[in-house]
Every structure is written in C-alpha cells, then in structure tokens.
Amino acid sequence: MKQRLGALGLLGLLTACQPEHPVEAVHATPAPAVAPPPVSDVQASRIALQAQFVDEALGVAILPLPGFTLRRDFRRDYLATDDWKAFAEPDSRGKAVAALVLDGSNEITAAELRLGVSDDPDAVAACLKVSDSALPSPRDEIRIDGQPFQHFRASDAAMSHYLTVDAYRAVRQQRCYAIDLLVVGTRPEVYDPPRTPPFDTATAQARLREALGAIRFVK
Predict the structure, then answer these.
(1) Which residues contact 21 (CB under 8 A, 6 or more apart)?
(2) 121/111 Cα distance (integer angstroms)
(3) How far apart are CA 127 and CA 93, in angstroms?
(4) Is the dihedral of CA 65, 68, 73, 74 positive or negative?
(5) Contact in structure between 171 and 35 (CB atoms under 8 Å)
(6) Span 87-110, pLDDT tens digits
(7) For 198-211, what is each residue's pLDDT tens digit?
(8) Contact 95, 118 (CB under 8 A)
C-alpha cells in the first residue's frame, strides 16, 4: 500500500485577498487552449504583498486562506511519500513547492492541496499525460487563476487505506506545474473502537476546490 500511495492539504478572506477568478468559474467550463498574457510587474507586486507564499523564480504565489495551514514540504506522518506530484513515476524528478493542509487533517482523514514543479525535460514532456490510476471520467481543461490546466481524477486503495486525487497539470515557461487535491486516509471502522474522521470526503473535496482560488501566477 505504501508504494501505491506513494505514487500518489474562502470564506472570511479580506476583500484585498479575494480570488480575482471566482472559485466556481474554475470548474465551470473548459478553458481555451491559449494562455493569458504575462502578469505585469505592478500586478505581480500587488499579489506578492497579499500573499502568504511567493516563489518569484517559479512565478507562483498563494494567498492567505482561512481553515488551511501552509506547508513548504510534502513530508507528512499520514501520507506515504513526498513525491513532487501524485502518481509520479519512480524516476520522475521535480520539486515540492508548497501545500495547503486542511485544518484537522490526521491519520484517519487528511486533505491538502499540493503544488509541485519540475523543469526536468522528461517530466515536462510527460506533464500532460494522464496517470494509469486515472478514473474513467472525462479529461477536461480548467482555468486556475486564468491559466489553462489539464484536469483528471484518480484514486488508489489497498486494504483499509484509500486515496482520491483531483490532478491539474500545465506546461508554463518550459516547466511542468502539478497541482493535486489529495484526500487520503484509513477507513475509521477498522479501529477498535471506530475512530471519528475530522471531516468527510465530500466536505474535504469541496474545501480543496475552494483552495484553488488561492493560487496566483506572478509571471
């Protein structure tokens, strides 16, 4: 199970930090193939002042988000590995950039948004490839902060453990950008006595989709 999982976290924001692109619009319709123009220096500076996380070299920022904790790595007690993207191949190379972990996440149920990036030529070439673990659901094109991403859903399960992923992939500036919405855990009924999860899967997935609205591209 550890190996399989390893192939495998806005209400109340100040007005200044509200997403410019509504969260509902992220999933509303497929995005055009053409990316928007580069962000101006003035706009990038304004975003940086609002953000809780900025990586200017990679051109990404994350706005403050109530109910989530920012982490700068993917190392967790409740997740199997710290791969730079969900369902990464064993020899895939990339960087864990940042994560938004839903408050209350524990070994029973955990949820987080992960942002990983790779400039490895092989990773970039395979960036938009759908994982072998993808569910038989339509692959679509979604905008995140105005940027077009390929989206697919995937899952994994073994014994009493499970993982569900909404995966978003894009090639920008010769890099592969991977955003994953992960819900992972252990079925609470296997414990004696049964454990109570901090939130149900549907609630976690809804909150993670909201978290997409905190992502900003600054170049």
Answers:
(1) 143, 144, 145, 146, 213
(2) 30
(3) 12
(4) negative
(5) no
(6) 898 889 999 999 999 999 998 999
(7) 999 999 999 999 99
(8) yes
φ, ψ of residue 206 in degrees (nearest 5): -65, -45
Q: Which of 127, 115, 108, 111 is nearest to 175 (CA)?
A: 127
Query: 84 with 92: CB under 8 angstroms?
Result: yes
Residue listed under structure tokens 């090639």: 171
Q: Which residue type sits at 88?
A: A
CA gap 166, 24 in Å, rounded: 16
Of 157, 160, 153, 155, the residue nearest 197 (C-alpha)? 160
For the cut 50, the answer to whether the pLDDT of residue 17 exceeds it is no
Considering the entire predicted model, what is its pTM?
Answer: 0.81
Asked if 182 and 167 touch (Cβ cutoff 8 Å), the reply is no
